[in-house]
Specification:
- By secondary structure, the chain is of the alpha/beta class.
- The strands form 2 sheets. The chain has a 5-stranded parallel beta sheet with strand order 4-5-3-6-7, sandwiched between helices. It has a two-stranded antiparallel sheet with strand order 1-2.
- Helix 10 links the parallel strand 4 and strand 5.
- Helix 10 packs parallel to helix 11.
- The protein is globular, with a radius of gyration of 22 Å.
């Protein structure tokens, strides 16, 4: 009963915060806060203040990894922050102007301190649904990590003043920040190998579990030779580039038979500060069951779709599907999947973010400037099936 009441209270708090943000001043400028550079300055101030406590209070290696992950995320996500500002997602709180998800993450971090990680995820998810906010999971994780590290900074200063419990708090919160930054890593995931149904099923299941967009090479296309295939893969990679710029991990289902295509994917991932995860699906019947995924099977055999890749990881798709999925998830999230936060309105939110990243200001249906809705009292997702929520 206590657990149910706690969940109800958290859900009510999410609804209340969304309502307050819906009534917040609308004409807020990027320079007032909420921009990528403003967040970067906040991170750097925290790193500077925690530096004297490396080794003494906090683990220096953990803080160094936090710094690397946080700065890498920000370096590659300028389009995401610009889109958030264009969408009117900045709100005024007691400390100034911040992104609405930033404000929600501050309270979620309080739940993390109470060892209620599941409730923290649900709070941010409820807030996002009530606020009709399409923020990607990576941004939600990033803001929780920031507030956890900000509390590390405060705890370190309390250590200096003689607080006997502050050091232990700082170490716990360092772990929280690192866990969320790892979980929020933006990745380009190549699911390749000889085309057959098991490979595409794995790619689809992986995208669903991660809450990520799925890009597939088109079936029945005209890509019967290398030149045509180059066009197919160039289109896939261009779409992937746009997604990772907006903070989305993207799963790409194609053969990836040609080394130059994989090399181009690696170059894009490096430039956009995203991880590249490659896996080649295979089982003993893969070649016999292969079908055209946009490049003819004969062409795939010619260029070597079933040949080993340098440094490859093979995922056996000939056994139970859940085993293959667990293997693939372990490659994408090597530190565990317990903190994988999914989108609640994935298709609509991604299309809206893409529109604003391109400079548009209309809503998903093209009806003119998007306006915030006051949250309803209907529980998020209640009464709708999954497909209806995505429409």
């Amino acid at each position: 009963m206590e657990r149910a009441m706690t969940a109800e209270a958290v859900q009510a708090a999410a609804r209340h915060m969304a309502a307050m943000h819906a009534d917040a001043p609308r004409r807020l400028r990027a320079h007032e806060g909420g921009s990528r550079d403003a967040l970067l300055a906040r991170w750097r101030a925290g790193f500077d203040q925690v530096l004297p406590f490396h080794g003494e209070v906090v683990d220096a290696a953990e803080v160094t990894e936090i710094q690397l992950l946080a700065l890498r995320f920000l370096a590659g996500r300028e389009a995401l922050f610009d889109a958030r500002i264009a969408m009117g997602r900045l709100v005024a709180d007691g400390a100034g102007v911040v992104d609405g998800v930033d404000d929600a993450a501050r309270l979620a971090t309080g739940l993390e301190r109470l060892n209620a990680s599941a409730l923290a995820e649900r709070f941010v998810g409820w807030y996002s649904e009530y606020a009709d906010d399409p923020a990607p999971p990576s941004l939600r994780h990033h803001y929780v990590a920031f507030h956890a590290f900000d509390q590390v900074r405060a705890a370190c200063l309390r250590v200096r003043r003689g607080d006997p419990v502050a050091a232990a708090e700082a170490r716990v919160l360092t772990g929280v920040a690192l866990r969320h930054l790892r979980a929020g890593t933006v990745s380009m995931v190549l699911v390749g190998g000889v085309p057959d149904g098991s490979r595409s099923r794995l790619a689809g299941a992986l995208a669903e579990r991660l809450g990520s967009p799925l890009l597939s090479s088109p079936g029945g296309s005209h890509a019967h030779d290398l030149w045509a295939a180059n066009g197919v893969y160039a289109s896939l990679l261009d779409q992937a580039r746009q997604y990772v710029r907006l903070g989305e991990t993207v799963v790409m289902d194609a053969s990836w038979a040609v080394p130059s295509h994989r090399e181009e994917a690696a170059a894009i991932a490096a430039f956009e500060r995203a991880d590249l995860v490659t896996m080649r699906c295979g089982h003993e019947n893969a070649e016999r069951n292969g079908h055209d995924d946009g490049v003819r099977t004969a062409y795939l055999h010619a260029v070597g779709a079933s040949r080993p890749w340098p440094g490859e990881t093979v995922v056996d798709t000939g056994g139970p599907s859940h085993v293959a999925l667990d293997r693939a998830l372990g490659l994408v999230r090597p530190f565990g999947v317990a903190d994988v936060w999914r989108h609640r309105t994935r298709t609509t939110s991604i299309s809206r973010m893409n529109g604003h990243a391109a400079g548009g200001t209309s809503d998903a249906a093209g009806r003119g400037p998007a306006r915030r809705r006051r949250p309803s009292r209907r529980p998020p997702g209640g009464g709708l099936n999954a497909q209806e929520r995505l429409e």
